[in-house]
Amino acid sequence: QRPFPWEPEARAVGVRRAATLGSDPRSPRALSGPGMFADRTAPGADVQSLWRSARSALCEAKTCQTEKISTAEAAAQSHTAQDAAVQTEKSKDAVQDFQQEVQVDYTGLLSFLQRVEDTVIKELNKNWKSHAFDGFEVNWTDQDETVLCLHTLSYPEAQDQNLQVTSVSWNVTGSVIACSYGRLDDGNWSTEKSYVCTWNLDRRGLNPQHPDLVVDVPSSVMCLAFHPSQPSLIAGGLFSGELVVWDTSRTEDPVIWRTGMTDDTHTDPVYQVNWLPDTKHRNHSRLLSVSTDGKILVWREERDGRLALAEGFALLAQQIPRSTRLKKMAWGEAAVGVTSLSFSHFEPDVFVVGVEGGYSLRCSASAQTPALALPRPGGSAPLRAPAELAFSPHAGPVYSVSCSPFHRQVLHVGHCQNLFLSCGTDGQVHLHSMLQTQPVFALQLSKKYLFCIRWSPVRPLVFAAASGEGVHLFDLARSVQKPTVSLKQSMSDCPVYCLEFNTKHTRLLAAGDAAGTVKVWQLSSDFTEQGPREINHLEQLASEIMD
């Protein structure tokens, strides 16, 4: 009888296990007496596993534990496809009904048309004569209710000199914006170098701090104007009184015309330039300039690169209409300093000027009255006195005037009522009719200066004003008391000196400020889509002063 069931296995494995059991004093074998077991050393035996080798023989090396997955691309999950205009099945009955000839009662139809003919013609004539939808254009684009800043443009070198943006202008294509740098605040800056910069907003990779063109100018540039038909020509008025025309397509020397310093040149800074059509030479243009020396001069192009004086006007206090003469001035102040000018869009000989004395003056380019002699007469062309009417004044100098491109009301032969806006240092906006001295309304817009005002080119009741606080957008259809939207040009209260609407891309408005930046604003659809009766509303505003 086996004392332990595992004894055979113990012998097969080795003596090391048996010796251990026999030497244990607690083992039963240790109690059977000495000599029953003896210690000896035997070699070990290795037993290989047949199960593992047999199992591994059946295994195959694979990259995954599943069978190969087969895939196929298909455009649809269905086995068959068919094109159809609708998702419903065709009805044979419907096709048959459609193909059947429609029965028309022509006799009854003719009788009906004869009965309603007079009524329909009457209503059509009434609609044809209606003005309910005058000026209304259907706009299929998405509506945008916000005003966004698309670009903030600047020239770091000009900003390092603390120069300000004095003027902005769009070229005829509406894709290029130009700005002039100078300084409008106090200081001895007449000899400072300045710049004219341009950016093409349609150019890929536009760098807002790297202009496409930079023109160095030896004197501060006070105003700019792109040519109305040639997109590369820019005219500028300088602090020195000179006029310069640049061709931006020329990289070497862009100056193509200039007045130089002659007896005809302005003796004060030039604050506005305008391109005029040349009636004698269809392919040429003339330049008009205004200055605080009291002169309004018209220049023609010469082949040698000079701008020669063609004709001119002079404003003197003694020749302002008596009923509204400006306050008495000493002889040395006889010239009335002109700060701005705007031509009527309907009478090419009529224009309005703003002057330092606070008045707006209606003038005529066809005036023939000679101007009185100036303290420093000089000049190669005789000057004429153009002033016809002075309007109710502002409480300070007028900085900007703008004639409406929409309103025109013929009252009687030879007289046309046209509206214009004016603004100045008193912070007020005046809306005037050219036939009345008193304003249609006077709005106190700001406690700070107003530097520029412009009518919208597409909305008769919309205009924009630049102030010491920012840009203000007005919609007179909503309110004549306060701006519809006021835009902050910068985080600080930075004065905005100039602004211009884009006549091609009518949702764009550019504004330049004292910090040396130009912001291009995208207007909301509210400011660019004309309502059905806006012209009538504008006429009603104008007629209030006539009643």
Automatic annotation (TrEMBL):
GO terms for biological process: intraciliary transport. GO terms for cellular component: ciliary plasm; cytoplasmic dynein complex. Its main location: cytoplasm. InterPro entries: Dynein_IC, WD40/YVTN_repeat-like_dom_sf, WD40_repeat_dom_sf, WD40_rpt. Keywords: Cytoplasm, Repeat, WD repeat. Residues 1-42 are annotated as: Disordered. Gene3D superfamilies: YVTN repeat-like/Quinoprotein amine dehydrogenase. Pfam families: WD40 (PF00400). It is found in: Cytoplasm. It comes from the Eukaryota. GO terms for molecular function: dynein heavy chain binding; dynein light chain binding. PANTHER family: CYTOPLASMIC DYNEIN 2 INTERMEDIATE CHAIN 2, DYNEIN INTERMEDIATE CHAIN. This is WDR34 protein. It comes from Origma solitaria. The lineage of its organism: Eukaryota, Metazoa, Chordata, Craniata, Vertebrata. The gene is Wdr34.
